[in-house]
Amino acid sequence: MSLKLCLAGSGGGHVRQLLDLEPVWRRFDYVFVTEDTSLGRSLAMDHPVKFVAHYAIGQARLGKPLKMLGGALRNLLQSVRIIATERPDVVISSGAGAVFWVAVLGRLFGAKLIVLESFARFDKPSKFGRLVSPFATKKIVQAPALKKYWPDAELFDPFRVVEGERPPKKPLLFATVGATLPFERLVDTVIAAKSAGHLPYEIVLQTGSDPRSLPSLDGVRMVESLDFQEVQQILRDAEMVLCHGGTGSLVTALRAGCKTMAMPRRFDLAEHYDDHQEEVTTAFAERGLIDIVNGPEDLEAAIARGKNRPAVMATTDHSALIQWLDKFLDGIRDARVGV
């Protein structure tokens, strides 16, 4: 008897964390639940995927409560349909808000619920984690500080610096706002620095759903979205990366050997639903892995520093977590068949 797994993660870094656990879920019948982003659509080309509407509690904090409620209602109806149809035995969720209903409903329908707290949370659990923790069969954290909030959680710190030479690179800067939200400040920073002649690179600028009419610049390729395979190819070539402060984007760039800069989204500028990206980028910068950029002057200075410093490669090693999940899931399966 095999288990049916539901792998629930919202767009961007949350679903990428689930992809890193492939040795676990490949052994079972599985379905992904995520948002309809470029990454989600790329995922659906090779895997069973169900999409749910985007919504987040932070939308109300940004003055859009009706938009939040409308998205939450659509998401709830979609989640009921998915859980009732798929009937998973185990839900593994890395957050965040868009998969809240799937996680809770899965548990109410009898599934085991494994909550994998995001690698983006270094100091305290996320809102998603706090809301779903009462329903969780098992909780997993990826930073030691979170154990004081959840003493019963399993701890697996996946971060590793990679030794060795990085792959050959081209004079290319990849700037990306990510898969979920627009980020005009990052786009404007790249355009301003390139227009002033301070970026001696060819540039690929992924803008997201920016509603403005953007200028055409020599040496700059602007695209709204890229599928995951295209992103991987660009990262193989890119000397430098400027991205938002999501852990998925940061780790993906560092893993590819890119000299990495990050611009954290800020709640006070209505760029995100909270300030967790400032927490993330500060933690990465304190480890000497990235430069933090907040505007054109910061970008120019970071580019200049990057020319003279070696790239640091880093990745996430989930082997210990994978081993634990294998044992836990095999225990559930064996109990069901009476082994």
Helix count from the secondary structure assignment: 13
Give the neighbour order of strands across the main sheet. Answer: 3-2-1-4-5-6-7
H/E order of the elements? EHHEHEHHEHEHEEEEHEEHEHEHEHEH
Q: What share of the residues lie within helices?
A: 25-40%
Outline the structure in words.
- The structure is a single chain.
- With 339 residues, the protein is an alpha/beta fold.
- It has two domains: 4-158 and 317-337, Glycogen Phosphorylase B (Rossmann fold, 3-Layer(aba) Sandwich), CATH 3.40.50; 162-315, Glycogen Phosphorylase B (Rossmann fold, 3-Layer(aba) Sandwich), CATH 3.40.50.2000.
- It is built from 13 helices and 15 strands.
- It has helices spanning 13-19, 22-25, 38-44, 58-61, 65-86, 100-108, 127-132, 184-195, 228-237, 247-255, 276-286, 296-308, 319-337; strands at 4-9, 29-35, 49-52, 90-95, 112-116, 138-141, 154-155, 159-162, 170-176, 202-206, 220-223, 238-244, 259-263, 290-292, 313-316.
- A seven-stranded parallel β-sheet has the order 3-2-1-4-5-6-7, sandwiched between helices. Strands 11-10-9-12-13-14 form a six-stranded parallel β-sheet, with helices on both faces.
- Strand 13, helix 11 (276-286) and strand 14 (290-292) form a beta-alpha-beta unit.
- Helix 8 (184-195) crosses helix 12.
- It is globular.
